[in-house]
Amino acid sequence: MNIPNTPIARKSLAEIIAGKLAASILEGRLSQGTQLAPERDLVKEFGVSRSTLREALKILLDSRLIESRVSVGWFVCEITSNNLARARELASWARSETAPVVRPAGQEPPTGPRRLPVNPEKPLQIPNLKTDRSGTFQLISWWEREKVENARVMVVGAGALGNEVIKNLALMGVGHILIVDFDTIEMANLSRSVLFRESDASRNKAEVAAARAKELNPNIKVQYIHGDITNQIGLGVFRRMDVIIGCLDNREARLALNRFAYWVGKPWVDGAIQELYGLVRVFIPGKGACFECSLTEQARRDLAVRYSCPLLARENVLLGKVPTTPTIASIIGAMQAQEALKIIHGMPVEPGKVTHFNGLTNEMHTSAYTAREDCESHWSYGEITELPLNAGTTTLAEFARIVQADLGPETVIELDQELILSLTCPQCGTREEVIRPMSEVGFKAAHCPVCGILREIEMTHTITGKESFAHLSLSAAGIPPLHVLRAFNALEYRFYELTGDLKDTLHFRHFERQDNRLMATAIRETIRLHDVTVSDEPSTNPAHGRVTLWKD
Protein backbone atom coordinates (compact mmCIF):
# COMPACT_ATOMS: atom_id res chain seq x y z
CA MET A 1 0.00 0.00 0.00
CA ASN A 2 1.10 3.59 -0.51
CA ILE A 3 1.96 5.23 2.80
CA PRO A 4 2.03 9.05 2.84
CA ASN A 5 5.33 10.29 4.24
CA THR A 6 4.91 14.06 4.09
CA PRO A 7 4.24 15.94 7.32
CA ILE A 8 0.63 16.94 8.02
CA ALA A 9 0.62 20.72 8.49
CA ARG A 10 -1.49 22.02 11.35
CA LYS A 11 -1.43 23.76 14.66
CA SER A 12 -1.96 21.91 17.90
CA LEU A 13 -5.15 22.43 19.90
CA ALA A 14 -3.21 24.46 22.48
CA GLU A 15 -1.85 26.73 19.74
CA ILE A 16 -5.35 27.28 18.35
CA ILE A 17 -6.64 28.25 21.82
CA ALA A 18 -3.68 30.60 22.25
CA GLY A 19 -4.52 32.11 18.89
CA LYS A 20 -8.13 32.74 19.87
CA LEU A 21 -7.07 34.44 23.09
CA ALA A 22 -4.51 36.54 21.18
CA ALA A 23 -7.24 37.58 18.72
CA SER A 24 -9.43 38.68 21.65
CA ILE A 25 -6.53 40.79 22.96
CA LEU A 26 -5.80 42.38 19.57
CA GLU A 27 -9.48 43.17 18.91
CA GLY A 28 -9.93 44.81 22.32
CA ARG A 29 -12.27 42.29 23.87
CA LEU A 30 -9.55 41.72 26.43
CA SER A 31 -7.91 45.07 27.19
CA GLN A 32 -4.65 45.81 29.00
CA GLY A 33 -4.82 44.89 32.69
CA THR A 34 -7.93 42.74 32.31
CA GLN A 35 -7.91 39.56 34.36
CA LEU A 36 -8.78 36.39 32.46
CA ALA A 37 -11.62 34.22 33.71
CA PRO A 38 -10.59 31.37 36.04
CA GLU A 39 -9.04 28.34 34.38
CA ARG A 40 -12.02 26.14 35.20
CA ASP A 41 -14.29 28.55 33.30
CA LEU A 42 -11.95 28.79 30.32
CA VAL A 43 -11.77 24.98 30.18
CA LYS A 44 -15.56 24.85 29.84
CA GLU A 45 -15.64 27.78 27.41
CA PHE A 46 -13.20 26.23 24.97
CA GLY A 47 -14.15 22.59 25.64
CA VAL A 48 -10.57 21.46 26.27
CA SER A 49 -8.68 19.78 29.09
CA ARG A 50 -6.92 21.78 31.80
CA SER A 51 -3.50 20.63 30.52
CA THR A 52 -4.30 21.90 27.00
CA LEU A 53 -5.46 25.26 28.39
CA ARG A 54 -2.33 25.65 30.48
CA GLU A 55 -0.19 24.90 27.45
CA ALA A 56 -2.03 27.68 25.58
CA LEU A 57 -1.51 30.10 28.47
CA LYS A 58 2.19 29.19 28.51
CA ILE A 59 2.42 30.19 24.83
CA LEU A 60 0.82 33.56 25.62
CA LEU A 61 3.10 34.02 28.63
CA ASP A 62 6.23 33.31 26.57
CA SER A 63 4.94 35.76 23.95
CA ARG A 64 4.55 38.47 26.65
CA LEU A 65 0.85 38.85 25.96
CA ILE A 66 -0.24 37.85 29.48
CA GLU A 67 1.41 37.76 32.86
CA SER A 68 0.83 35.63 35.95
CA ARG A 69 0.22 37.09 39.38
CA VAL A 70 0.76 34.52 42.11
CA SER A 71 -2.44 33.47 43.91
CA VAL A 72 -4.43 35.98 41.79
CA GLY A 73 -4.60 34.85 38.18
CA TRP A 74 -3.69 35.77 34.60
CA PHE A 75 -3.69 39.38 33.37
CA VAL A 76 -3.44 40.90 29.87
CA CYS A 77 -0.22 42.79 29.07
CA GLU A 78 0.05 45.99 27.07
CA ILE A 79 0.42 45.60 23.31
CA THR A 80 3.67 47.29 22.26
CA SER A 81 6.07 47.12 19.35
CA ASN A 82 7.83 44.30 21.19
CA ASN A 83 4.90 41.89 21.17
CA LEU A 84 2.60 43.20 18.40
CA ALA A 85 4.07 41.04 15.64
CA ARG A 86 3.89 37.96 17.84
CA ALA A 87 0.28 38.72 18.79
CA ARG A 88 -0.67 38.94 15.11
CA GLU A 89 1.10 35.65 14.41
CA LEU A 90 -0.74 33.91 17.22
CA ALA A 91 -4.07 35.37 16.12
CA SER A 92 -3.57 33.80 12.69
CA TRP A 93 -3.55 30.40 14.40
CA ALA A 94 -7.17 30.73 15.53
CA ARG A 95 -8.47 29.07 12.35
CA SER A 96 -11.91 30.57 12.69
CA GLU A 97 -13.58 33.46 10.93
CA THR A 98 -14.83 34.90 14.20
CA ALA A 99 -13.07 34.28 17.49
CA PRO A 100 -15.30 33.50 20.46
CA VAL A 101 -16.01 36.15 23.04
CA VAL A 102 -13.63 35.45 25.93
CA ARG A 103 -15.01 36.65 29.26
CA PRO A 104 -12.95 38.64 31.74
CA ALA A 105 -12.91 37.41 35.33
CA GLY A 106 -16.14 37.96 37.23
CA GLN A 107 -18.27 38.47 34.13
CA GLU A 108 -21.02 35.85 33.77
CA PRO A 109 -22.74 34.87 30.53
CA PRO A 110 -26.19 36.41 30.01
CA THR A 111 -28.99 34.60 31.76
CA GLY A 112 -32.76 34.75 31.52
CA PRO A 113 -35.86 32.65 31.09
CA ARG A 114 -35.57 29.81 28.58
CA ARG A 115 -38.24 29.63 25.90
CA LEU A 116 -39.32 26.71 23.78
CA PRO A 117 -37.77 27.26 20.34
CA VAL A 118 -40.17 27.74 17.48
CA ASN A 119 -39.17 27.74 13.84
CA PRO A 120 -40.62 31.08 12.58
CA GLU A 121 -40.05 30.11 8.95
CA LYS A 122 -41.94 26.84 9.11
CA PRO A 123 -44.75 27.08 6.54
CA LEU A 124 -48.26 26.03 7.44
CA GLN A 125 -48.92 22.65 5.85
CA ILE A 126 -51.97 20.43 5.92
CA PRO A 127 -50.59 16.86 5.86
CA ASN A 128 -52.30 13.99 4.13
CA LEU A 129 -52.80 11.70 7.10
CA LYS A 130 -53.89 8.83 4.83
CA THR A 131 -50.55 8.63 3.01
CA ASP A 132 -47.97 10.37 5.23
CA ARG A 133 -47.05 8.29 8.27
CA SER A 134 -45.27 11.29 9.87
CA GLY A 135 -47.96 13.76 8.91
CA THR A 136 -49.24 14.34 12.44
CA PHE A 137 -45.79 15.50 13.55
CA GLN A 138 -46.00 18.32 11.02
CA LEU A 139 -48.69 19.88 13.19
CA ILE A 140 -46.18 20.36 16.03
CA SER A 141 -44.97 23.96 15.98
CA TRP A 142 -41.29 23.22 16.64
CA TRP A 143 -41.02 19.95 14.70
CA GLU A 144 -38.48 20.05 11.87
CA ARG A 145 -38.91 17.02 9.68
CA GLU A 146 -35.63 17.42 7.85
CA LYS A 147 -33.64 17.44 11.08
CA VAL A 148 -35.32 14.26 12.28
CA GLU A 149 -34.91 12.42 9.00
CA ASN A 150 -31.24 13.41 8.73
CA ALA A 151 -30.41 12.64 12.36
CA ARG A 152 -28.00 9.86 13.31
CA VAL A 153 -28.65 8.20 16.67
CA MET A 154 -26.68 5.35 18.19
CA VAL A 155 -28.43 3.13 20.74
CA VAL A 156 -26.04 1.14 22.91
CA GLY A 157 -27.79 -1.82 24.48
CA ALA A 158 -30.81 -3.62 22.99
CA GLY A 159 -32.37 -5.03 26.15
CA ALA A 160 -35.56 -3.83 27.83
CA LEU A 161 -34.63 -0.13 27.74
CA GLY A 162 -33.07 -0.39 24.30
CA ASN A 163 -36.20 -2.00 22.88
CA GLU A 164 -38.34 0.91 24.04
CA VAL A 165 -35.88 3.55 22.81
CA ILE A 166 -35.47 1.90 19.40
CA LYS A 167 -39.24 1.51 19.04
CA ASN A 168 -39.79 5.21 19.82
CA LEU A 169 -37.03 6.40 17.48
CA ALA A 170 -38.42 4.30 14.64
CA LEU A 171 -41.98 5.54 15.17
CA MET A 172 -40.78 9.15 15.25
CA GLY A 173 -39.00 8.63 11.93
CA VAL A 174 -35.43 9.26 13.10
CA GLY A 175 -33.66 8.72 9.80
CA HIS A 176 -30.56 6.78 10.82
CA ILE A 177 -30.46 4.39 13.78
CA LEU A 178 -27.37 2.40 14.75
CA ILE A 179 -27.88 -0.38 17.31
CA VAL A 180 -24.94 -1.87 19.25
CA ASP A 181 -25.13 -4.90 21.56
CA PHE A 182 -22.99 -8.01 22.12
CA ASP A 183 -25.66 -10.19 23.78
CA THR A 184 -28.09 -12.78 22.44
CA ILE A 185 -31.81 -13.24 23.09
CA GLU A 186 -33.07 -15.62 25.77
CA MET A 187 -36.60 -16.44 26.79
CA ALA A 188 -36.46 -14.25 29.91
CA ASN A 189 -36.05 -11.20 27.62
CA LEU A 190 -39.52 -11.68 26.13
CA SER A 191 -41.35 -10.44 29.22
CA ARG A 192 -40.00 -6.90 28.82
CA SER A 193 -38.75 -6.54 25.23
CA VAL A 194 -41.36 -5.43 22.73
CA LEU A 195 -39.24 -6.17 19.65
CA PHE A 196 -38.37 -9.82 20.41
CA ARG A 197 -40.34 -13.03 19.71
CA GLU A 198 -39.99 -16.65 20.86
CA SER A 199 -38.58 -17.61 17.47
CA ASP A 200 -35.72 -15.16 18.05
CA ALA A 201 -34.12 -17.21 20.83
CA SER A 202 -30.29 -17.35 20.64
CA ARG A 203 -30.13 -14.70 17.91
CA ASN A 204 -28.18 -11.46 18.26
CA LYS A 205 -30.17 -8.76 20.03
CA ALA A 206 -28.80 -5.94 17.89
CA GLU A 207 -29.68 -7.66 14.61
CA VAL A 208 -33.23 -8.59 15.59
CA ALA A 209 -33.94 -5.16 17.09
CA ALA A 210 -32.71 -3.51 13.87
CA ALA A 211 -34.88 -5.77 11.73
CA ARG A 212 -37.98 -5.02 13.82
CA ALA A 213 -37.27 -1.27 13.75
CA LYS A 214 -37.15 -1.45 9.96
CA GLU A 215 -40.42 -3.38 10.03
CA LEU A 216 -42.01 -0.67 12.19
CA ASN A 217 -40.93 2.06 9.78
CA PRO A 218 -39.58 1.03 6.36
CA ASN A 219 -38.64 4.67 5.66
CA ILE A 220 -35.77 4.76 8.15
CA LYS A 221 -32.23 3.45 7.66
CA VAL A 222 -30.87 1.06 10.26
CA GLN A 223 -27.60 -0.66 11.02
CA TYR A 224 -26.60 -3.08 13.74
CA ILE A 225 -23.23 -4.04 15.21
CA HIS A 226 -22.90 -7.19 17.29
CA GLY A 227 -19.99 -6.09 19.44
CA ASP A 228 -18.72 -4.80 22.76
CA ILE A 229 -18.98 -1.04 23.16
CA THR A 230 -15.89 -0.97 25.39
CA ASN A 231 -13.39 -2.08 22.75
CA GLN A 232 -14.98 -3.03 19.41
CA ILE A 233 -16.52 0.24 18.17
CA GLY A 234 -14.24 2.83 16.59
CA LEU A 235 -14.35 6.44 17.78
CA GLY A 236 -15.06 7.48 14.20
CA VAL A 237 -18.51 5.95 14.65
CA PHE A 238 -19.15 8.08 17.75
CA ARG A 239 -18.03 11.32 16.13
CA ARG A 240 -20.53 10.89 13.28
CA MET A 241 -23.53 10.61 15.60
CA ASP A 242 -25.87 13.44 16.60
CA VAL A 243 -26.91 11.73 19.83
CA ILE A 244 -25.86 8.56 21.66
CA ILE A 245 -28.34 6.79 23.93
CA GLY A 246 -27.03 4.41 26.58
CA CYS A 247 -29.30 1.55 27.65
CA LEU A 248 -26.72 -0.28 29.73
CA ASP A 249 -26.72 -2.28 32.95
CA ASN A 250 -23.21 -1.84 34.40
CA ARG A 251 -20.81 0.95 35.38
CA GLU A 252 -17.90 -0.29 33.25
CA ALA A 253 -19.82 0.06 29.99
CA ARG A 254 -21.25 3.44 31.03
CA LEU A 255 -17.81 4.71 31.92
CA ALA A 256 -16.43 3.64 28.54
CA LEU A 257 -19.35 5.23 26.69
CA ASN A 258 -18.96 8.42 28.73
CA ARG A 259 -15.28 8.76 27.88
CA PHE A 260 -15.74 8.02 24.19
CA ALA A 261 -18.55 10.57 23.89
CA TYR A 262 -16.54 13.20 25.76
CA TRP A 263 -13.40 12.62 23.69
CA VAL A 264 -15.24 13.43 20.43
CA GLY A 265 -17.64 16.03 21.90
CA LYS A 266 -20.95 14.19 21.52
CA PRO A 267 -23.99 14.33 23.84
CA TRP A 268 -25.34 11.12 25.29
CA VAL A 269 -28.47 10.20 27.20
CA ASP A 270 -28.20 7.61 29.97
CA GLY A 271 -31.05 5.57 31.44
CA ALA A 272 -31.27 3.01 34.22
CA ILE A 273 -34.11 0.92 35.63
CA GLN A 274 -34.72 -1.47 38.51
CA GLU A 275 -38.11 -2.84 39.58
CA LEU A 276 -40.37 0.27 39.73
CA TYR A 277 -37.57 2.83 39.80
CA GLY A 278 -35.65 4.55 37.05
CA LEU A 279 -33.52 7.54 36.14
CA VAL A 280 -32.62 9.59 33.08
CA ARG A 281 -29.68 11.95 32.65
CA VAL A 282 -28.13 13.90 29.79
CA PHE A 283 -24.38 14.43 29.55
CA ILE A 284 -22.89 17.03 27.20
CA PRO A 285 -19.10 17.52 27.13
CA GLY A 286 -18.11 20.81 28.70
CA LYS A 287 -21.55 21.46 30.16
CA GLY A 288 -21.98 20.36 33.74
CA ALA A 289 -20.92 17.06 35.24
CA CYS A 290 -20.34 13.88 33.27
CA PHE A 291 -21.10 10.30 34.28
CA GLU A 292 -17.70 9.78 35.86
CA CYS A 293 -18.22 12.94 37.93
CA SER A 294 -21.42 11.38 39.30
CA LEU A 295 -19.71 8.29 40.72
CA THR A 296 -19.50 8.11 44.48
CA GLU A 297 -16.24 7.33 46.26
CA GLN A 298 -17.56 3.84 47.01
CA ALA A 299 -18.34 3.29 43.32
CA ARG A 300 -14.82 4.40 42.43
CA ARG A 301 -13.37 1.96 44.94
CA ASP A 302 -15.52 -0.84 43.54
CA LEU A 303 -14.29 -0.12 40.04
CA ALA A 304 -10.70 -0.05 41.29
CA VAL A 305 -11.16 -3.48 42.88
CA ARG A 306 -12.72 -4.90 39.73
CA TYR A 307 -9.76 -3.62 37.72
CA SER A 308 -7.07 -4.68 40.20
CA CYS A 309 -6.37 -7.60 37.85
CA PRO A 310 -6.74 -6.42 34.23
CA LEU A 311 -7.62 -9.86 32.83
CA LEU A 312 -10.17 -10.53 35.54
CA ALA A 313 -11.80 -7.15 34.87
CA ARG A 314 -12.50 -8.21 31.29
CA GLU A 315 -14.56 -11.16 32.55
CA ASN A 316 -16.02 -9.53 35.64
CA VAL A 317 -19.64 -9.19 34.55
CA LEU A 318 -22.65 -8.88 36.80
CA LEU A 319 -23.48 -12.22 38.39
CA GLY A 320 -27.22 -11.64 38.41
CA LYS A 321 -29.80 -9.92 36.26
CA VAL A 322 -31.30 -6.64 37.42
CA PRO A 323 -35.03 -7.23 38.03
CA THR A 324 -37.15 -4.87 35.94
CA THR A 325 -40.70 -4.52 34.65
CA PRO A 326 -41.79 -3.61 31.11
CA THR A 327 -43.69 -0.63 32.55
CA ILE A 328 -40.65 1.14 34.01
CA ALA A 329 -38.73 0.32 30.82
CA SER A 330 -41.47 2.06 28.81
CA ILE A 331 -41.38 5.15 31.02
CA ILE A 332 -37.61 5.62 31.12
CA GLY A 333 -37.13 4.58 27.48
CA ALA A 334 -39.69 7.18 26.42
CA MET A 335 -37.92 9.88 28.43
CA GLN A 336 -34.58 8.95 26.87
CA ALA A 337 -35.98 9.08 23.34
CA GLN A 338 -37.63 12.41 24.10
CA GLU A 339 -34.36 13.91 25.40
CA ALA A 340 -32.66 12.75 22.20
CA LEU A 341 -35.40 14.38 20.12
CA LYS A 342 -34.88 17.65 22.00
CA ILE A 343 -31.15 17.55 21.33
CA ILE A 344 -31.76 16.90 17.63
CA HIS A 345 -33.96 20.00 17.49
CA GLY A 346 -31.60 22.17 19.53
CA MET A 347 -34.15 22.48 22.33
CA PRO A 348 -33.03 23.14 25.93
CA VAL A 349 -31.95 20.16 28.02
CA GLU A 350 -30.35 20.00 31.47
CA PRO A 351 -26.91 18.41 31.13
CA GLY A 352 -25.21 17.17 34.26
CA LYS A 353 -28.50 16.60 36.06
CA VAL A 354 -30.42 13.43 36.90
CA THR A 355 -34.19 12.91 36.93
CA HIS A 356 -35.35 10.13 39.26
CA PHE A 357 -38.73 8.45 38.79
CA ASN A 358 -40.31 6.55 41.68
CA GLY A 359 -42.94 4.26 40.23
CA LEU A 360 -44.11 3.24 43.68
CA THR A 361 -45.28 6.75 44.57
CA ASN A 362 -45.32 8.23 41.03
CA GLU A 363 -42.99 10.98 42.22
CA MET A 364 -40.26 12.55 40.13
CA HIS A 365 -37.44 14.89 41.11
CA THR A 366 -34.34 16.34 39.46
CA SER A 367 -31.00 17.10 41.07
CA ALA A 368 -27.62 18.28 39.78
CA TYR A 369 -24.29 16.52 39.97
CA THR A 370 -21.12 18.41 40.86
CA ALA A 371 -18.50 18.53 38.11
CA ARG A 372 -15.08 17.31 39.21
CA GLU A 373 -12.15 19.40 38.02
CA ASP A 374 -9.86 16.35 38.11
CA CYS A 375 -12.25 14.03 36.26
CA GLU A 376 -10.32 11.73 33.92
CA SER A 377 -13.13 11.71 31.35
CA HIS A 378 -12.78 15.45 30.67
CA TRP A 379 -10.48 15.19 27.69
CA SER A 380 -11.41 16.62 24.30
CA TYR A 381 -9.60 15.23 21.26
CA GLY A 382 -9.99 18.48 19.32
CA GLU A 383 -8.93 18.37 15.67
CA ILE A 384 -8.83 14.89 14.14
CA THR A 385 -6.84 14.11 11.00
CA GLU A 386 -8.62 11.73 8.62
CA LEU A 387 -6.27 9.26 6.95
CA PRO A 388 -7.20 6.88 4.08
CA LEU A 389 -6.09 3.84 6.08
CA ASN A 390 -7.76 0.60 7.19
CA ALA A 391 -7.35 -1.15 10.51
CA GLY A 392 -7.16 -4.55 8.82
CA THR A 393 -4.45 -3.72 6.26
CA THR A 394 -2.29 -1.06 7.93
CA THR A 395 0.50 -2.42 10.14
CA LEU A 396 1.70 -0.94 13.41
CA ALA A 397 5.02 -0.07 11.77
CA GLU A 398 3.36 1.69 8.84
CA PHE A 399 1.12 3.75 11.09
CA ALA A 400 4.05 4.65 13.35
CA ARG A 401 5.98 5.87 10.31
CA ILE A 402 3.09 8.17 9.33
CA VAL A 403 2.65 9.80 12.72
CA GLN A 404 6.40 10.14 13.23
CA ALA A 405 6.65 11.99 9.92
CA ASP A 406 4.02 14.36 11.32
CA LEU A 407 5.11 14.73 14.94
CA GLY A 408 8.77 13.75 14.93
CA PRO A 409 10.86 10.58 15.29
CA GLU A 410 10.22 10.28 19.03
CA THR A 411 6.44 10.01 18.57
CA VAL A 412 4.69 7.14 20.32
CA ILE A 413 1.29 5.56 19.58
CA GLU A 414 -0.93 5.13 22.64
CA LEU A 415 -3.39 2.21 22.61
CA ASP A 416 -6.79 2.29 24.34
CA GLN A 417 -6.32 -1.19 25.82
CA GLU A 418 -3.29 -3.13 26.93
CA LEU A 419 -1.56 -5.43 24.46
CA ILE A 420 -0.60 -8.71 26.16
CA LEU A 421 2.92 -9.64 25.04
CA SER A 422 3.64 -12.77 27.03
CA LEU A 423 2.57 -14.96 29.96
CA THR A 424 5.29 -16.48 32.18
CA CYS A 425 4.73 -19.07 34.90
CA PRO A 426 6.62 -18.07 38.08
CA GLN A 427 6.73 -21.73 39.20
CA CYS A 428 7.84 -23.75 36.17
CA GLY A 429 9.32 -20.82 34.23
CA THR A 430 7.56 -21.56 30.93
CA ARG A 431 6.90 -18.48 28.81
CA GLU A 432 4.18 -18.14 26.19
CA GLU A 433 4.33 -15.34 23.64
CA VAL A 434 0.82 -13.96 23.13
CA ILE A 435 0.72 -10.58 21.26
CA ARG A 436 -3.04 -10.18 21.58
CA PRO A 437 -5.24 -7.39 22.95
CA MET A 438 -6.39 -7.84 26.52
CA SER A 439 -10.03 -8.19 25.44
CA GLU A 440 -9.09 -11.45 23.70
CA VAL A 441 -7.18 -12.97 26.62
CA GLY A 442 -9.38 -14.44 29.33
CA PHE A 443 -8.64 -14.83 33.02
CA LYS A 444 -8.64 -18.62 32.75
CA ALA A 445 -6.25 -18.53 29.79
CA ALA A 446 -3.78 -16.57 31.93
CA HIS A 447 -3.23 -19.61 34.15
CA CYS A 448 -0.36 -21.98 33.46
CA PRO A 449 -1.65 -25.13 31.73
CA VAL A 450 0.94 -27.21 33.62
CA CYS A 451 0.95 -25.73 37.14
CA GLY A 452 -2.52 -24.20 37.12
CA ILE A 453 -1.38 -20.94 38.77
CA LEU A 454 -1.81 -17.41 37.46
CA ARG A 455 1.08 -16.45 35.21
CA GLU A 456 2.96 -13.15 35.22
CA ILE A 457 1.71 -10.79 32.52
CA GLU A 458 3.97 -8.72 30.28
CA MET A 459 2.01 -6.04 28.49
CA THR A 460 2.25 -2.62 26.87
CA HIS A 461 -0.06 0.19 25.80
CA THR A 462 2.44 2.15 23.69
CA ILE A 463 3.89 1.42 20.25
CA THR A 464 7.01 2.94 18.66
CA GLY A 465 6.98 0.92 15.42
CA LYS A 466 10.29 -0.76 16.26
CA GLU A 467 8.78 -3.71 18.14
CA SER A 468 9.37 -7.25 16.92
CA PHE A 469 5.62 -7.55 16.35
CA ALA A 470 5.22 -4.23 14.51
CA HIS A 471 4.42 -6.16 11.33
CA LEU A 472 0.99 -6.98 12.80
CA SER A 473 -2.04 -5.09 11.57
CA LEU A 474 -3.76 -2.47 13.70
CA SER A 475 -6.79 -4.76 14.08
CA ALA A 476 -4.55 -7.56 15.38
CA ALA A 477 -3.51 -5.14 18.14
CA GLY A 478 -7.16 -4.66 19.15
CA ILE A 479 -7.83 -1.46 17.21
CA PRO A 480 -11.36 -1.50 15.72
CA PRO A 481 -12.25 -0.20 12.24
CA LEU A 482 -12.78 3.56 11.87
CA HIS A 483 -11.00 4.20 15.15
CA VAL A 484 -9.27 7.43 16.16
CA LEU A 485 -5.77 6.73 17.45
CA ARG A 486 -3.68 8.90 19.75
CA ALA A 487 -0.03 9.73 19.15
CA PHE A 488 2.17 11.97 21.27
CA ASN A 489 5.66 13.38 21.64
CA ALA A 490 7.17 15.32 24.53
CA LEU A 491 4.96 18.35 23.82
CA GLU A 492 1.55 17.35 22.50
CA TYR A 493 -1.02 14.77 21.46
CA ARG A 494 -2.47 14.48 17.97
CA PHE A 495 -5.31 12.32 16.74
CA TYR A 496 -5.70 10.29 13.55
CA GLU A 497 -8.76 8.52 12.18
CA LEU A 498 -8.72 5.37 10.05
CA THR A 499 -11.16 6.93 7.59
CA GLY A 500 -10.49 4.25 4.99
CA ASP A 501 -12.84 2.04 7.05
CA LEU A 502 -15.77 4.47 6.85
CA LYS A 503 -17.60 2.99 3.87
CA ASP A 504 -17.82 -0.52 5.29
CA THR A 505 -18.11 0.37 8.97
CA LEU A 506 -20.89 2.97 8.98
CA HIS A 507 -23.36 2.51 6.14
CA PHE A 508 -26.95 2.24 7.54
CA ARG A 509 -27.79 -0.19 4.74
CA HIS A 510 -29.01 -3.22 6.67
CA PHE A 511 -32.33 -4.54 5.37
CA GLU A 512 -32.39 -2.17 2.38
CA ARG A 513 -34.17 -3.80 -0.56
CA GLN A 514 -31.70 -2.51 -3.14
CA ASP A 515 -28.93 -4.33 -1.28
CA ASN A 516 -30.84 -7.57 -0.79
CA ARG A 517 -28.25 -9.87 -2.35
CA LEU A 518 -25.37 -8.22 -0.49
CA MET A 519 -27.23 -8.32 2.80
CA ALA A 520 -28.36 -11.92 2.26
CA THR A 521 -24.72 -12.96 1.96
CA ALA A 522 -23.74 -11.05 5.09
CA ILE A 523 -26.61 -12.44 7.14
CA ARG A 524 -25.90 -16.03 6.04
CA GLU A 525 -22.51 -15.70 7.70
CA THR A 526 -24.03 -14.95 11.11
CA ILE A 527 -27.38 -16.78 11.17
CA ARG A 528 -28.06 -20.49 10.74
CA LEU A 529 -30.17 -21.18 7.66
CA HIS A 530 -32.76 -23.20 9.60
CA ASP A 531 -33.43 -20.14 11.79
CA VAL A 532 -34.57 -17.97 8.89
CA THR A 533 -36.94 -18.02 5.96
CA VAL A 534 -35.43 -18.48 2.50
CA SER A 535 -37.43 -17.20 -0.46
CA ASP A 536 -36.84 -16.52 -4.14
CA GLU A 537 -38.32 -13.03 -4.14
CA PRO A 538 -38.04 -10.23 -1.58
CA SER A 539 -41.16 -9.44 0.41
CA THR A 540 -42.73 -5.99 0.49
CA ASN A 541 -40.77 -5.26 3.65
CA PRO A 542 -37.48 -7.23 3.82
CA ALA A 543 -37.44 -7.02 7.61
CA HIS A 544 -40.99 -8.32 8.06
CA GLY A 545 -41.21 -11.00 10.74
CA ARG A 546 -37.84 -12.64 10.55
CA VAL A 547 -34.87 -11.65 8.44
CA THR A 548 -35.49 -12.84 4.89
CA LEU A 549 -32.76 -14.33 2.71
CA TRP A 550 -32.73 -14.60 -1.06
CA LYS A 551 -31.13 -17.37 -3.10
CA ASP A 552 -28.17 -16.47 -5.27
Care to describe what's here?
The protein is an alpha/beta fold and 552 residues long. The protein has four domains: 13-91, Winged helix-like DNA-binding domain superfamily/Winged helix DNA-binding domain (Arc Repressor Mutant, subunit A); 140-368, Rossmann fold (3-Layer(aba) Sandwich); 384-504, no CATH class; 511-550, no CATH class. Helices cover 28% and strands 19% of the residues. It contains 16 helices and 18 strands. The strands form four sheets. It has an eight-stranded mixed β-sheet, sandwiched between helices. Strands 11, 12, 13, 14, 15 and 16 form a six-stranded mixed β-sheet that branches. A hairpin with a 2-residue loop joins β7 and β8 (277-283). The protein is globular. Mean pLDDT is 85; it is low at 96-101, 316-320, 518-539 and 542-552.
How does the overall form come out from the CA principal axes? globular
What portion of residues belong to β-strands?
15-25%
Please give the share of residues in helix.
Answer: 25-40%
Mean pLDDT: 85
CATH class of the largest domain: Alpha Beta
Q: What is the fourth-level CATH superfamily of the largest domain?
A: NAD(P)-binding Rossmann-like Domain
- Number of E-type strands: 18
Mind summarizing the main beta sheet?
8 strands, mixed
CATH architecture call of the largest domain: 3-Layer(aba) Sandwich
Query: What is the fold-level CATH name, i.e. the topology of the largest domain?
Result: Rossmann fold
What is the spatial order of strands in the main beta sheet?
Answer: 5-4-3-6-7-8-9-10
Q: What is the CA-atom radius of gyration, in angstroms?
A: 26 Å
Task: Show unreliable segments.
Answer: 96-101, 316-320, 518-539, 542-552
